Amino acid sequence: MQLTRRDLGAIAAGAAVMAALPRLALASESNGFEQAIMDFTGGVEPAEGDVTLGTPEIAENGNTVPIEVSAPGAAAIMVLSTGNPNPGIVTFEFSELSGERTGSTRIRLAKTQDLIAVAKMEDGSFTMAKRQVKVTIGGCGG
Which long-range CB contacts under 8 A does 30-38 form with residues at least 24 apart? Predict the structure, then answer.
């Protein structure tokens, strides 16, 4: 059998559609931050607690948003985003030799969304904090 350009075009178009289907299915669902929390906590519902999540209330430039998170007595702190395609932003892990249980970084946010910090405490309990960050477009608030 000899393939023509028309046959190859049809095969390529079909392959492109098949490759796009999983992405279309994922785009219709949430980004999975609830499942990421359950995976981190082992199914335990985290309580509101002693976690401090420092973010600007309004980010004038979503390309570089500074965040800081701390939780005294934490073994690990995970930071998630409810609006990004991949919810996990960063996980800070601490040892008993860690002086402060604090981490900071800069992240990129495309739109206004909530950030969630979940801390695994040394006693095995989990606490969390949530904060909304408003991302402005072109420096205009809202």
Answer: 31/81, 31/82, 31/83, 31/84, 31/85, 31/86, 31/87, 32/87, 33/80, 33/81, 33/82, 33/87, 33/116, 36/78, 36/80, 36/87, 36/88, 37/78, 37/80, 37/116, 37/118, 37/128
Higher pLDDT, 110 or 30: 110
The more confidently predicted of residues 10 and 99 is 99
Work out the pLDDT band at 140, boundaries 50, 70, 90.
low
pTM: 0.74
| Cα–Cα dist 64/106, whole Å | 6
Task: Decide if 15 is inside a domain.
Answer: no
Asked whether residue 125 is assigned to any structural domain, the reply reads yes
Decide if 47 is inside a domain: yes
